[in-house]
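Q: I'm writing up a methods section and want to include an example of the input and output format. Could you take the sequence below and give the corresponding predicted structure tokens, formatted cleanly so I can copy it straight into the document?
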Amino acid sequence: MDYEGRIARLAARLSDAHVDALLVTNLTNVRYLTGFSGTNAQLLVTPGGATFLTDPRYRARAADLVRGADVAIYSNPTTGGLTGELPAHVARASAARVGVEAATMTIAVRDAVAAALPDVEIAPTHGLVEDLRRVKDTEEIALVREAVRLADETFERVLDRVVPGVTEAEIALEIEVAARRAGGDGVSFDPIVGSGPLSAHIHHTASDRVLELGDVVLLDLGARLDGYCSDLTRTVVLGPAPDDVAELYDVVLRAQTAGIEAVRAGAVTGDVDRAARGVIADAGHGELFGHGLGHGVGLDIHEAPRLYEPGTDTLRAGDVVTVEPGVYVPGRAGVRIEDCVLVGDDGGEVLGKAPKDRLVELRRGPS
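A: Here is the clean output for your methods example:
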């Protein structure tokens, strides 16, 4: 990864944000900029370079992982920590106005930083690193591709466990195990397993409900590899598909196809959402599609850009977004189909290969 290049591109944006330095405290952003992963780290970025700060627990890890920045270990970790170390580095950079990440820094940390820098203006900034992160480079795309492949494999492994008599929670555990057995670092997020009427819960927490013949089962899962995420949703039926569920699946599949066809560099995010949403609305289910069409995927499972109806952002080549329309009938069933899509100048490339061209009917008896 070109960590020096990432830091340089961020430093070049400081003047536009009207700050002399940026204190990066979001751990995902620190990882993106330096390669470090851990529970305590900050990065002070100035036009002249970057300083990575952490406590003595991470001395060896920082020496091994951090790239593109000088490493500074807190001299008084139990009493001063970040606020004890930061003033000298800010003074060395002659920074009169230091930006902080408003979306993720707590008020308590902001106040502590301000107290440690009484002669420095602390200025909120928004999305400086996140905007860099959204467009993936070649190495990142390769990692996302592999994370998607691992999610596909996880889905195939788990299908054998979707049988009458098991609980949603048991299937969710199988997803976590399967993602690791496939070669991932783990799952991208807590798996969603919604069965029967609970499949209509858009973000369901896997429960002790026991699967029964006739259930619609919504499986939303992802694998993580070297920090990079994937996101996949498939909806299956445990037994023959009722006519109403088959109709819903057809609508959602056509909506997803329309959304994917609208994905390309330069497309307005709201237009992409409307391309899929219009199919569902025309089928009479518009009020049952209660979320945006998709979101960016990378080091976070949800990141920029967002595909939603009022959106005015434009897609860029190198964005990786989900396209995940759904229809959710309260008390009956929910259907969602989701894939990760790489944005290109000529269109979108679906990265996964999990089957979706028809509603999978699992003809299985009790376990």
